[in-house]
Amino acid sequence: MPEDLNWAIGGEAGDGINSTGKIFAQALSRAGRHVFTSKDFASRIRGGYTAYKVRTAVDRVESVVDRLDVLIALTERTIDENMNELHEGSVIIYDGERTTMQNVEIPEEMIGLEVPLKRLAEEAGGAIMANVVALGAACEVTGFPIENLDESLEKRFGDKGEAIVENNKKAARAGQEFVQAEYDHDYGYSLETTDNDYVLLNGDEAIGMGAIAAGCRFYSGYPITPATDVMEYMTGRVDQFGGKVVQAEDELAAINMALGAARAGARAMTATSGPGIDLMTETFGLVATTETPLVICDVMRSGPSTGMPTKQEQGDLNMALYGGHGEIPRFVVTPTNISECFWKTVEAFNLAEKYQTPVFLVSDLALAVTEQTFAPETFDMDEVEIERGKVVDEDDIDSWQNEKEQFQPHFPAADGVSPRTFPGTSGGAHMTTGLEHDALGRRTEDTEVREDQVEKRERKVETAREREDWDYREFGDPDADTLVVSWGSNEGAMREGLEMLAEDGLDVRFISVPYIFPRPDLSEEIEAAEQTIVVECNATGQFADVIEHDVLERVDRVNKYDGVRFKADELAEEIKDAVAEETEVSA
Amino acid sequence: MSAFSAIGDEREVDRDEFTPGIEPQATWCPGCGDFGVLKALKQAMPEVGRNPDEVALFTGIGCSGKLNSYFNSYGFHTIHGRSLPVARAAKLANPDVEVIAAGGDGDGYGIGGNHFMHTARENHDMTYIVFNNEIFGLTKGQTSPTSPKGHKSKTQPSGSAKSPIRPLSLALTSGATYVARTAAVNPNQAKEIIAEAIEHDGFAHVDFLTQCPTWNKDAKHYVPYTDIQQSDDHDFDTSNREEAQQMMFETENKLYEGEVLTGRYYVDDESPSYQEEKQATGEMPEEPLAERYFDEDYEWERTADSLLEHHK
Ligand SMILES: Cc1ncc(C[n+]2csc(CCOP(=O)(O)OP(=O)(O)O)c2C)c(N)n1
Ligand code: SF4
Ligand SMILES: [Mg+2]
């Protein structure tokens, strides 16, 4: 397990918690340390408790844990909210001169550091820098060389002028020096730096970056937590590569615009979350039956209805698999970590174009609000391949015309994949419709043609099933009796949980599934194991249901639906309990 | 030169090219006004010099939505109420394509009303033809947003309690830069107006009165009609917003009093289209993005380093 430090800054929404936390995370990343961040937040812009948490180590960190070592508390509530994670020896930095913080009581076994954040900031040039004073204090406590903070401060405040940057550096040092002068605890931390140079990004950014790298040049969306970052990331960036981002009037417009752009020849995408996906549903079928490539991204949050907009849940699996009336051929891809958010996005575009279907790219809030460090090579864009499928230009259009020189957009080819042309291509004019249609795209209710077209669309899925890899990712002990299966963002917590379990003498095989449809066949793996446990962040076990259906066998379930992602230590305990229960039953 | 060979092709275009190779038998009822739209559209195309391969026609659901079954082009029959977002995005992806959307009064002013408002507001460079038969035709004669107050139908047996929508006024207040009304009973004017609407740079809205003899009024109800540009009784300036508004208001009232006024109501050649505005701020490429993507020699590699730098 990594030698990690867990650090957080918390206060009220609007206190600059995010940007301060990000400065610290970025400084660690630039200093060659791995970082995994998470956020506690309420959806209100001001007035709710919010925190930015950083877990850092020299080795990779893949999840959050239930332990907080150093906390900058801007409000008393921040301490209360984190009481369960604080432990003996935890350090709490707070401004005891702040009127609301004067009666704060720090539990005896912890170390409270009263630092006059506001006063020191004023002395350095302005009260607004109080959080930066706190960062300086944190550097002292954690043994993190303060020079590492400087570049992050330059990056954050550079566009405000050199004087502001200098003042911030001064403010940070004031915090550090205050702690040095006033306290002489041995905190026991010394954050080592390395020569590595990492990039730090969250899952939404990775999806946006993957989309741009994959040649997506049209994005339409309507803001919604936690998918908005995808749109904001692409805005201003995709333009540099000749693309366009549009904020539509609603999600109905958003998905239909993406569809229109795709018909005209652009690689197109829309991203949303639960309520938006609901609105988009009618268009899923239109996309599928007109055989238009489209990437539809759902960054899940907790439902139903408006639910808990800033909380985690993997509740939309059934929606992605079955949403929409009638039978809709589709693919469902679920990235299992942040770098996979990039690569699965690339793959989603290729699948969409090769098979002319909607592709659901299903991520979740835990991935969206988490930033993680990676070696830049992780996103080697020369490895990105763009496969456009059967796009036909004027030179080979005649091979797809019938004897009357009409283009056949829904030609029932042996592999199910028909040709595609874009408006402007000579000889390609054709119609298509959401009504059942013939090879020419004309409406029909002819029973044979109907069967042909249904079968042709299904055939594409079968072709894809054979031609593509639908592999799972595997960790832990391949011969273990206990098999844990999960999908999406639980991978990180489970990977760390594996190490904890191994230390406790429990070997586990872990299969992390990034494809829900088509999906890998797990019959042999489940057959080989004594016990299979399916882990997911929802109450009903939507993925477990799918697996039981596949293998016609019961599996055990570990579900979490309190709105908070799995933490490594907590998940390890749950697995232990599930194993113990099974042993009891069979004993 | 466009990578899309049909675009900018200077050849003579014949209206018959817009008749699909195997003409499906029209399923509109005899005497339906929808035939009038089809005919006007086919006649307008040679006039604007566009060939079928460079035109994209997006329709909604309704009797009106069947238009592209009888009109050869890149036709896309969408779902109820959604033709506008599909159409306007196709235009953004390839501004060189001539983009037309069409649908019924229920489709455009009812279920798709929000898109109508916003597509007009953003002044997308496209043409929108609404087949206004004052009824839901395809679903067999229910009250539509343009059915007059008191209109009786199976779903409103005691008569519609609501005043109808004012389509022309709504287009104007929303931001459309070309607003006209024509009628199936006046084919010459219809053809001219559709050609003008297509040539207009910006959102052109044509409220097209199409009689539905099966469920609502027949053609007789739309004659006599008055072309406001030809009539001495209606003197106003189509580039003046207030005067246009006044004229629309009068027209909308008169229709329900049995007087059919048609013509151009508002023409604003000054306001930039969405695309022009976004290109000016650098948020939209000068080169059609569909074309850029179409180019097989496109250098995708350029996306790499600049993106990663931001995350360091
Ligand atoms: C979402 C949805 N709701 C309802 C329908 C049923 N429907 C089809 S067309 C139509 C109304 C058509 O009226 P209008 O748009 O005026 O077209 P018209 O037939 O008069 O040309 C309705 C309600 C549908 N196809 N989709
Ligand atoms: S029902 Fe009315 S609108 Fe529909 S085709 Fe018949 S006449 Fe035309
Ligand atoms: Mg109608």
What's the SSE blueprint?
The complex is a heterodimer of chains A (587) and B (312).
Chain A: E1 5-12, H1 17-30, E2 34-41, E3 49-57, E4 68-73, H2 76-81, E5 86-94, E6 111-114, H3 117-124, H4 130-142, H5 147-157, H6 162-182, E7 199-202, H7 203-213, E8 216-221, H8 228-234, E9 244-247, H9 251-264, E10 267-272, H10 274-289, E11 294-300, H11 317-322, E12 331-333, H12 338-355, E13 358-364, H13 365-369, E14 371-374, E15 431-433, H14 447-467, E16 473-476, E17 482-487, H15 491-503, E18 508-513, E19 515-517, H16 523-528, E20 531-536, H17 542-551, E21 556-559, H18 568-586
Parallel strand pairs in A: 1-4, 4-5, 5-6, 8-9, 8-10, 10-11, 11-13, 12-13, 17-18, 17-20, 20-21
Antiparallel strand pairs in A: 1-3, 2-3, 7-14, 12-19, 16-18
Helix pairs in contact in A: 1-5, 3-4, 3-6, 4-6, 5-6, 7-8, 7-12, 9-10, 15-18
Chain B: H1 34-48, E1 55-59, E2 74-77, H2 83-93, E3 98-104, H3 105-111, H4 113-121, E4 126-132, H5 167-174, E5 178-183, H6 187-199, E6 203-209, E7 225-227, H7 241-255, E8 260-267, H8 274-280, H9 289-294, H10 304-309
Parallel strand pairs in B: 1-2, 1-3, 3-4, 4-6, 5-6, 7-8
Antiparallel strand pairs in B: 5-8
Helix pairs in contact in B: 1-6, 3-4, 4-5, 5-7
Bound molecules: thiamine diphosphate, iron/sulfur cluster and magnesium ion.
Molecular structure report:
The complex is a heterodimer of chains A (587) and B (312). Helices cover 37% and strands 20% of the residues of chain A. Chain A is of the alpha/beta class. Chain A has four domains: 5-197, Pyruvate-ferredoxin oxidoreductase, PFOR, domain III (Pyruvate-ferredoxin Oxidoreductase, domain 3, 3-Layer(aba) Sandwich), CATH 3.40.920.10; 201-383, Rossmann fold, CATH 3.40.50; 394-467, no CATH class; 473-586, Rossmann fold (3-Layer(aba) Sandwich). Chain A has a seven-stranded mixed sheet, with helices on both faces. Chain A has a six-stranded mixed sheet with strand order 2-3-1-4-5-6. In chain A, helix 7 (203-213) packs parallel to helix 12. The mean pLDDT of chain A is 95. Chain B has 312 residues and is an alpha/beta fold. Chain B has helices at residues 34-48, 83-93, 105-111, 113-121, 167-174, 187-199, 241-255, 274-280, 289-294, 304-309, and strands spanning 55-59, 74-77, 98-104, 126-132, 178-183, 203-209, 225-227, 260-267. Chain B has an eight-stranded mixed sheet with strand order 2-1-3-4-6-5-8-7, with helices on both faces. The longest helix of chain B has 15 residues, at 34-48. The model of chain B has no long low-confidence stretch (mean pLDDT 94). The chains are: A alpha/beta (587), B alpha/beta (312). Strand 15 of chain A pairs parallel with strand 2 of chain B. The complex binds thiamine diphosphate (TPP), iron/sulfur cluster (SF4) and magnesium ion (MG). Magnesium ion is lined by residues 62, 104-106, 133, 135-137, 144 of chain B.
